[in-house]
Amino acid sequence: MKYVLDSNIALKWVLAEVDSDTARRLRAEFHNPIHELIAPDVFPVEVAHGLAKAERRGVIPQGDADRLLTNVLSTPPHVYPYLRLLKRALDIASPARIGVYDCLYVALAEREGCELVTADDRLVRTLHPTFPFITSLAALP
Predict the structure, then answer these.
(1) What percent of the chain has pLDDT over 90?
(2) Which of 46, 54, 99, 135 has its CB 3.0 to 4.6 Å from that of 7, i.e. a possible disulfide?
(3) What is the pTM of this model?
(4) Which H or E run includes 63?
(5) Which domains does the chain have, with CATH numbers?
(6) What are φ and ψ of residue 109, in 5° steps?
(7) Cα angle, residue 77 at apex, residues 40 and 101 outer, rounded to 5°
C-alpha cells in the first residue's frame, strides 16, 4: 500500500512514544517492501526539527539528534517537491486553521490518491471529515 508518511511517524521510529511499535512495524514493512512511503521534501527538515526539540526538552540526551536523524534518513520515504503542493496546501490550511507544513502532507496524499498516516490527532479530528484518507497511526491494523 502507498502511504504519505507524516514526519511525526518517523520520529516514533527513533523515540519511545505512544504507538512507536506500530510506527516501527510500518517502517519494517516499507523496508521489506510491503508498503511505499512518500512525503513532501520538507520531511527531513521536520524530522530534524522534532529531534532538536526532543533534545531541548530533555527527551533525548544532548547530541543524540544527529545520530537519530541519520537513523531515520537511512530508510527515507520517497520525497516530492513541496512547491508543487504549496498552493493546494495553503487552500486547505487557511479555512481549517491548520499549519501549511501539515497541509503539504494532506495535499500530497490527495494528489497521489493514497492515505496520509499521521500521529497528529488534531489534524485527524479537524480534516478527516473533509479528507477521509487521513488515517491515525493508532488506527492502522
Answers:
(1) 99
(2) 46
(3) 0.96
(4) none
(5) 2-139 (3.40.50.1010)
(6) -65, -40
(7) 25
pLDDT of residue 131: 98
DSSP string covering 1-37: -EEEE-HHHHHHHHS--TTHHHHHHHHHHHHTTSSEE
Cell numbers representing residue 66 in the block = 544527529
pLDDT value at position 141? 84
> Which residue is it, cell 517537491?
81
Angle, helices 20-31/7-14, rounded to nearest 10 degrees: 100
CB-based contacts of 6: which residues, under 8 Å, 6+ apart? 39, 102, 105, 116, 117, 118, 119, 120, 123
Q: Mark out the alpha helices in the chain (DSSP H runs).
A: 7-14, 20-31, 43-56, 64-73, 83-96, 100-112, 121-127
Give the model confidence (pLDDT) of 7-63 as tens digits. Answer: 999 999 999 999 999 999 999 999 999 999 999 999 999 999 999 999 999 999 999
